Amino acid sequence: MSKKAEKLIRKRRFLINKTKKIIKKRHKKNRKKKTKKVTNSIYINRSYNDKNSKIIKVLEHSNFYKKVRRKKGDKELKINIPRIFSFINNPDETILTLKKIYYAGTNSHISSIYFNYSQCEELGLCASLVTDLIILSLPRYKTKKIHLHGSTPNSIDARKLFNITGLPKHLGIHDASTPDSEILDILSNIESGEMAEQVVNFYQKCLNTQGYELTMLGKNAFSSMIGEVINNSEQYSGENGTWHALGYFDKPEVGEDYGKCRLVLMNFGNSIYESLKEADTTEYTKNQLKNHTKKNYNFLDQFTYTEEILWTLYSLQQNISKKRKDINDDRGNGTIKLIKSFMDIGANIDNKKSLMSITSGKCQILFDGTYKLEEKVNKDKKYYQIAFNDSNNLNNKPDKRFVYNLQNKFPGTIISMEFYLDRKFFNMLLNKEEN
Questions:
Q1: Which residues partner with 347 through β-bridges?
Q2: CA torsion, points 337, 341, 343, 347, in degrees to nearest 10?
Q3: Are residues 260 and 202 in the same domain?
């Protein structure tokens, strides 16, 4: 073999070996990337498994976290609380912030969380309650393996709400007293009748500040209504479902005739939509939902008017219940009664609107009095309906300002109310009844 041929063979072997090394190096690099990705997935989806915490199990199952970037090796994470931290007025950003809190609390590489409330001007009782429940459920908080600290909100109203929850204690901040308020401490997983009684007692105290009180008949009716809502949360939230309540009332200041009442009823677990889709929903209700979907099929889309929104709004109407067996079954009245009571009692004061929202899964429904409950008649049976459109027709699209799709899903359902109790308003109602 000539020297020239040998040289070509050696050159070819060299190039082949070089190519093999490059390919081998690339494979090795890709394997490292894949391994790293899997490892991150494991700790983000939690290596923590607190068997005693149903809330943690629900959040785990729904992947309720949002990764927050931080400097490499930094053990502290700063969570910026948004200007409006409320399920009523800013649900998407609120849920996103809660996801970040949960991510930080369950990430083993983070040993300290700083809650920055300095820019928060409006704080919802609903957001405070969920924040508290998440923090209290963290296994790392229970075992003192994570340090929590932070700042207080700037606005006076936000600071009042901040102080009545457990947050100041968690963050090592002095809890300023709130003598000008009535507080319903957090109630969790109590039997529906007992929880309803405590909620009614709280509401009675709020009314007493205005010189009024519930009659025995009113107490029973209000207790029955609240009890049914709580009972629904208890029964339909799923295997790991939990249910909670929290209340706060700002007593009238000197020279004012009204106080502001806030009440939150909520559950972690299945959303309304998820509950209706389960196998234990009766055939009667399944057929109702199926027929309603057919009637509205042309309106459905992936982003603004989903089946989840359609079913959630439909479920709020009178006599709609997953356990309803036939047309004579009178189940499904608790939520509609709550809506009616809210609209009857909540007065608008000095251009301030009473507000109520229902956040469930990826559906948000807001009540501010723009759309009213209307009494309708079908086959000699009276019922109440609210469709959030000018025709009050459930087969027409609702106003997207009041019924809309969320980008971030909440694992459960939150009913949050902010309403005013006004002495003048009560007097006006009494005068109407007398006349």
A1: 420
A2: -170
A3: yes
pLDDT of amino acid 434: 47
CA angle 383/280/278 to nearest 5° reads: 90
Spatial contact of 362 and 405, defined as CB atoms under 8 Å apart: yes
Encoded tokens for 420: 């005013």
Query: Of 151, 171, 191, which closes a domain?
Result: 171
The 10s digit of each residue's pLDDT in 209-262 is 777 787 787 788 778 888 888 888 888 888 899 999 999 988 776 666 678 889
Q: Which two tokens stand for residue 426?
A: 């009560």
Cα(382)–Cα(173) distance, integer angstroms: 53
**For 154-167, how does the pLDDT look when each residue is reduced to its tens digit (9 = 90+)?**
888 888 888 887 77
| Structural domain of 113 | 54-171
Q: How many angstroms separate the CA atoms of 399 and 227, rounded?
A: 30
- What is d(CA 214, CA 203) in angstroms, rounded to the nearest whole number? 9
Tokens in use for 97? 């912030």
Residue 352 lies in a domain: yes
163 & 193 share domain: no
Region of poorest pLDDT, from 40-54, 163-177, 208-222, 290-304:
40-54
DSSP H or E run through 293: helix 283-295
Query: Which residue, chain included where needed, has tokens 């809190």?
Result: 101
Pairing mode, strands 374-378 and 381-385: antiparallel
Name the residue with higher pLDDT: 75 or 253: 75
**DSSP-derived pairing of the beta strands 76-80 and 242-250:** unpaired
- pLDDT tens, residue by residue, 335-353: 888 888 777 766 566 677 8
Residue in this structure with the two tokens 């989806």, named with its chain if needed = 45
Q: What percent of the chain has pLDDT over 70?
A: 79
DSSP 311-329: HHHHHTSTT--TT--STT-
Angle between helices 307-315 and 283-295 (to 10 degrees): 120
Residue 401: strand, helix, or coil: coil
CB 242 within 8 A of CB 189: yes
With contact defined as beta carbons under 8 Å apart, do 176 and 159 qualify? yes
Helix (H) or strand (E) holding 105: helix 91-106
